[in-house]
């Protein structure tokens, strides 16, 4: 079924792809231009406008050609820029009519880049071009000379074009070649203009205004300049009927040279053909790889009064035929456009029909797919419902199990609490047994409180929790309940305030007094846990619209905004939570909602947390007869000071001298790190007989103490606020000053992967709670005794190297650095322990305790031993005196050197030789 469906979809997709390919390939109204031809004209005049029009008409016959024509208006710089622009646009071919020969470098750049270049009309001084097409300007000049000689012309003024343009140069050469060899023609003056009528007029006007020569004929290199010269002669009153004005171009258009010859204004002209069709044909031959000639000469002819009329008649007929062709072309184009439009409509209709068929096929396929998916979805929903039911059943069984266990725990806890209370009431029980009994009593009540909360939570989940309604004064109750926390607050230097000033009337509420007190005590427990020393807890009561609002605010670290919505979820603990089970606030929410009230948290990180509880002032079903008058009292044991994290001050025992390096020579210093004060107290009682004790409440504080005091061993809990035990161990083992200190981790986490995580941080031992005090003592004793000490670090023996291999990497680096510094400075008798510590990057205390832990010797002893080892080697290898050697290794007195040497090696220096 699935395979058939995929094949159908594949066929539909293939049909769509074919249809749209056909559609897009057919809808193109014009074939994409394949060739781009750039045309650079040197100027704008009638002759060049005719050429441009012929190029455009010829391009119509090639549907794959795009023409881009630009004129430089006789500006060489502009034409250079236009040619460079065509090159940058990567045109396929370039047609250039150079204004002057100085345009050659730009044409060369185009040719060298691989663009075919056609030079038209005029030449350049370079041969870097693909092909040339145009008339033979030398032949034109010589033909005009021969004609004037044949009519017996005498004195001639030659009016040339720009001296730097190739037509002017070549036409002058042709004309001069005839005039120089024929006595019938005498060139009386040679003038240069800029090919324009105005330029010619100015030049001739200047000549006639100065000292005009005698002349009966004026040969201009183009018709425009001939007209300008004729007007200049008219200005000076010369009888123009006696002067023969000749030109070149013979354009048949109105105002062109052929028309002027026919009218008699010009004596003769010479056709200079445009032949845009021939230029386009040459360009296409080059682009399509066909055969072509590099040099292409266009035919030209002399135009006189005798043949001008006939030539004009031929031109008129040619223009009529061209107009007919243009009209026919436009009709063909219109017919092609109509055909293309009809074709598009047909394609759209066919495409629509195909899409309709495809849509129907897809709809049928979608329906069948939907039916199949719905059937599978129903099966999945059924399986999910069954799995959900199984999970719910399993969850209920787990909750029932925990509830049963909680019930069973109450009996042994009661049997522990009862005898403990009796023993505490016995005045004969003295310290330290009394303090141990008090610890048992406090923690028993803590367990009873936790069991009670689990049972309360279970009642709420099973909808078995009921309200036992009482009518009482809420203001008095809050004031009384808050008093039970005064002792803890004073000890921790906290301020507790109760503000009920906004309540104007007697604040009577009908609610379950025990559950409301439970709510308040849980809120206060949470506030006490996170309020730092010197902080404050504010309790406020307000009454509006038959609703009491209780706010409990602290000045602790607060809760992130993204965690506030989850604050009252069961078992949820926010980031940085300091112990707890995640049940307390969940019970608060459950008891408040049981009263049809609301609770939410407000907080900014670093600015504390405010819990807001809203309670209606009455509950339905209140029976005054069942209400037992009772003075509100705090539930004993609901809060335990040891359950609240407190900071440990840096108090030291009176018999401990903290500024002495070896104060724990007989009683090693052990650092205890645990966030629970009761656990620290218990560990202190176990270890105090054999060890000096230092305490810290979290990993950060413990790390600071470890670096300052450098204990012999650390006993550390894993789960702690601020910095946990794993991170503490990781940082301790990464510090040169403390990396040698063994660490015992204490935790309730007993899984194998959790132990591996602890050992992975560098811990030396792992004890799972609950543990035996004797096991802890034995573990500490074994770790301290198993610390291998280096007997020597200067002998260079194999045993020394093997001993160093047993150290961790940081300690090996430290020993190497210590050895290097001592050997470098042992000759300095003023070299002190302080300088040694500075050189290896440790304080005096850190250096002393680390060296003593690794070698069993003080830094002074180690330095003296290093000097004696070197002295012994010098005594064996040199002939120097004992005194010289003593001074060299840093001793200030030879006699003291002798004493130390004999104490170390059992012989005098002289006997060792």
Indicate the overall shape: elongated
Detail the poorly predicted runs.
Answer: 26-32, 632-660
Beta-strand content estimate: 5-15%
The CA-CA distance between the termini, in Å, is 102 Å
The beta-strand count equals 24
Number of helices: 28
Please state the structural category. alpha/beta
Largest sheet: 6 strands, parallel
Radius of gyration: 57 Å
As a percent range, the share of helical residues equals 40-55%
Largest beta sheet: strand ordering: 2-1-3-4-5-11
- The residue-averaged pLDDT reads 80
Task: Describe this structure as you would to a colleague.
The chain is α/β, with parallel strands linked by helices. It is 51% helix and 14% strand. It has 28 helices and 24 strands. The strands form 6 sheets. Strands 2-1-3-4-5-11 form a 6-stranded parallel sheet, sandwiched between helices. It has a 5-stranded mixed sheet with strand order 14-16-17-19-18. Strands 21-20-22-23-24 form a 5-stranded parallel sheet, sandwiched between helices. The two termini are 102 Å apart. The relative contact order is 0.04. About 4% of the residues have low confidence.
């Amino acid at each position: 079924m699935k395979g058939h469906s995929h094949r159908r979809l594949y066929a539909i997709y293939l049909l769509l792809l074919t249809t749209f390919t056909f559609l897009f390939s057919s809808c193109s109204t014009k074939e994409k231009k394949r060739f781009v031809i750039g045309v650079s004209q040197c100027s704008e005049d009638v002759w060049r406008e005719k050429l441009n029009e012929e190029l455009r008409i010829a391009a119509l016959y090639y549907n794959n050609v795009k023409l881009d024509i630009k004129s430089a208006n006789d500006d060489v710089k502009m034409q250079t820029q236009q040619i460079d622009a065509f090159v940058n646009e990567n045109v396929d071919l370039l047609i250039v009519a150079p204004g002057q020969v100085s345009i050659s470098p730009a044409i060369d750049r185009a040719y060298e880049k691989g663009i075919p270049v056609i030079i038209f009309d005029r030449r350049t001084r370079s041969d870097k071009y693909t092909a040339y097409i145009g008339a033979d300007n030398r032949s034109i000049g010589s033909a005009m000379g021969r004609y004037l000689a044949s009519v017996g012309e005498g004195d001639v003024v030659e009016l040339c074009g720009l001296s730097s343009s190739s037509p002017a140069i070549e036409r002058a050469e042709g004309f001069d070649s005839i005039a120089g060899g024929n006595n019938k023609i005498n060139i009386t003056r040679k003038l240069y203009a800029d090919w324009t009528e105005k330029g010619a007029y100015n030049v001739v006007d200047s000549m006639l205004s100065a000292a005009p020569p005698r002349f009966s004929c004026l040969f201009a290199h183009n018709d425009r300049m001939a007209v300008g010269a004729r007007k200049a002669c008219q200005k000076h009153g010369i009888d123009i009927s006696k002067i023969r004005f000749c030109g070149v171009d013979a354009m048949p258009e109105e105002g062109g040279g052929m028309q002027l010859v026919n009218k008699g204004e010009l004596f003769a002209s010479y056709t200079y053909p445009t032949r845009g069709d021939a230029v386009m044909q040459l360009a296409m031959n080059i682009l399509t790889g066909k055969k072509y000639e590099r040099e292409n000469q266009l035919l030209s002819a002399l135009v006189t009064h005798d043949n001008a009329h006939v030539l004009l008649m031929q031109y008129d007929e040619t223009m009529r035929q061209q107009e007919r062709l243009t009209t026919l072309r436009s009709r063909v184009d219109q017919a092609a456009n109509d055909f293309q439009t009809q074709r598009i409509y047909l394609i759209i209709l066919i495409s629509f029909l195909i899409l309709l068929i495809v849509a129907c096929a897809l709809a049928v396929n979608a329906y069948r797919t939907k039916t199949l998916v719905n059937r599978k979805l129903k099966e999945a929903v059924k399986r999910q419902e069954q799995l959900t039911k199984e999970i719910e059943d399993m969850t209920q069984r787990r909750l029932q199990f925990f509830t049963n266990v909680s019930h069973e725990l109450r009996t042994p806890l009661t049997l522990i609490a009862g005898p403990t209370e009796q023993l505490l009431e016995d005045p004969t029980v003295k310290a330290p047994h009394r303090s141990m009994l008090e610890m048992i009593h406090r923690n028993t009540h803590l367990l009873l409180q936790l069991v009670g909360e689990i049972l309360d939570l279970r009642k709420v989940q099973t909808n078995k929790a009921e309200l036992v309604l009482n009518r009482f004064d809420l203001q008095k109750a809050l004031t009384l309940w808050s008093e039970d926390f005064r002792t803890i607050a004073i000890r921790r230097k906290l301020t507790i305030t109760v503000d009920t000033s906004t309540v104007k009337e007697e604040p009577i509420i009908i609610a379950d007094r025990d559950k409301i007190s439970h709510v308040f005590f849980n809120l206060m427990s949470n506030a006490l846990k996170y309020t730092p020393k010197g902080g404050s807890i504010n309790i406020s009561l307000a009454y509006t619209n038959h609703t009491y609002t209780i706010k409990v605010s602290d000045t602790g670290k607060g809760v992130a905004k993204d965690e506030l919505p989850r604050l009252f979820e069961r078992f949820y603990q926010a980031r940085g939570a300091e112990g707890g089970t995640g049940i307390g606030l969940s019970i608060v929410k459950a008891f408040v909602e049981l009263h049809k009230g609301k609770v939410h948290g407000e907080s900014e990180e670093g600015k504390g947390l405010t819990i807001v509880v809203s309670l209606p002032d009455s509950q339905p079903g209140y029976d005054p007869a069942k209400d037992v008058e009772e003075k509100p009292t705090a539930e004993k044991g609901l809060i335990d000071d040891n359950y609240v994290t407190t900071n440990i001050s840096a108090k030291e025992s009176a018999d401990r001298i903290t500024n002495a390096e070896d104060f724990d020579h007989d009683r090693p210093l052990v650092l205890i790190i645990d966030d629970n004060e009761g656990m620290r107290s218990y560990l202190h009682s176990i270890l105090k007989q054999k060890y000096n004790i230092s305490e810290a409440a979290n990993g950060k504080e413990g790390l600071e103490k470890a670096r300052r005091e450098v204990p012999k061993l650390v006993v550390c809990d894993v789960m702690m606020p601020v910095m946990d035990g794993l991170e503490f161990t990781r940082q301790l083992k990464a510090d040169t000053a403390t990396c040698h200190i063994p660490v015992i981790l204490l935790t309730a986490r007993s899984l194998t992967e959790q132990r591996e995580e602890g050992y992975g941080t560098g811990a030396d031992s792992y004890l799972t709670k609950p543990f035996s005090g004797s096991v802890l003592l034995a573990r500490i004793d074994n770790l301290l005794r198993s610390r291998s000490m280096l007997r020597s670090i200067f002998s260079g023996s194999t045993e020394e190297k093997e001993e160093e291999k047993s150290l961790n990497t940081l300690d090996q680096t430290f020993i190497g650095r210590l050895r290097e510094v001592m050997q470098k400075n042992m000759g300095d008798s003023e070299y002190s322990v302080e300088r040694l510590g500075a050189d290896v990057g440790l304080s005096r205390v850190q250096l002393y305790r680390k060296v003593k832990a690794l070698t069993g010797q003080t830094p002074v002893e180690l330095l003296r031993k290093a000097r004696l080892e070197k002295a012994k080697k010098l005594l064996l290898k040199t002939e120097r005196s004992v005194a010289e050697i003593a001074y060299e290794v840093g001793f200030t007195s030879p006699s003291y050197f002798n004493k130390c040497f004999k104490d170390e090696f059992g012989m005098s220096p002289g006997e060792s030789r």
